[in-house]
Design goal:
CATH topology: Ribonucleotide Reductase, subunit A
Number of domains: 1
Order of helices and strands: HHEEHHHHHHHHH
CATH superfamily: Ribonucleotide Reductase, subunit A
Shape: globular
Strand order of the largest sheet: 1-2
CATH class: Mainly Alpha
Number of helices: 11
Radius of gyration: 18 Å
Largest sheet: 2 strands, antiparallel
Length: 258
């Protein structure tokens, strides 16, 4: 195939995979919403002066986001070596670039908020659960468990990030809102890859479903703790959280893991 494809969903399955896992598709996907930005957000977005408690809460939140994005950066790059085919390797190489950008823009937003040493601040203030989740994901990558690691990263972590970032963007200051809305577009693509990859592999071998169900059970408590910490940081009422958590439940249900 050559040239842009108007409707990738109209392609035959093999052509669909060839197209959506390609560098060309990735570049076309990100070019429109990344061009002309200043450290991840539009240059014409006005910053606002946050009250001290709001600024402090945002700094703590961004520190946890930076750990989650670093986990995805490290895991994506590590997964390239064990990916079962060329298409997966190429997609993960594009995801690695996405995640590197996400880490960079989170750290820069901390600088804009007056944090002199963002990486030290992240080490000091990121939530304990997201740190443990990062460690668990990297354990699966280092164990070369492809299915389990893709589930942990591209389903559990990415879906949680998508849900939290979307909720945060609704009430964030203008710069943080613009930054998160651009990151969200990448997260949707990463989740789609994970769900499609695992769904295809489960159809080929139903035993994979049993292993993934066990991994989900192992991760559930930690994912929930991380989700709750993030929701506390951004001030989401507890009454709204079951609805927001539905993204994750719907994804694992489609994979037959509930």
């Amino acid at each position: 195939m050559s040239g842009p494809v108007d409707d990738v969903h109209a392609l035959e399955p093999e052509d669909f995979i060839e197209e959506v896992h390609s560098f060309e598709h990735w570049f076309e996907a990100v070019e429109g919403y990344l061009q002309g930005l200043d450290h991840g957000h539009r240059r014409d977005v006005d910053d606002v002066v946050l009250e001290a408690p709001d600024r402090d809460r945002l700094v703590a939140t961004l520190c946890s986001y930076a750990v989650a994005e670093t986990a995805a950066l490290e895991a994506s790059s590590g997964l390239i070596a064990i990916a079962p085919n060329r298409h997966a390797k190429i997609f993960l190489s594009t995801q690695t670039v996405d995640e590197g950008r996400h880490v960079e823009v989170m750290l820069n937003r901390l600088r804009e908020l007056g944090v002199p040493d963002p990486e030290a601040e992240v080490d000091r203030r990121a939530g304990p659960s997201v740190k443990r989740l990062r460690g668990k994901i990297l354990e699966l990558v280092n164990a070369r468990e492809w299915d389990a690691a893709i589930f942990a990263q591209n389903v559990a972590l990415e879906t949680m990030e998508y849900t939290v970032f979307r909720a945060h963007a609704r009430n964030a200051d203008p710069i943080t809102k613009d930054l998160l809305e651009r990151v969200l577009r990448d997260e949707r693509r990463h989740i789609g890859f994970g769900e499609n990859e695992l769904g295809r592999r489960i159809r080929q071998d139903k035993q994979r479903q049993t292993r993934l169900a066990a991994v989900k059970t192992e991760l559930d408590a930690l994912v929930l703790q991380t989700f709750e910490e993030a929701m506390d940081e951004i001030g989401v009422p507890r009454s709204d959280r079951p609805t927001l958590g539905r993204d994750y439940l719907e994804t694992v249900d489609r994979l037959g893991l509930v």
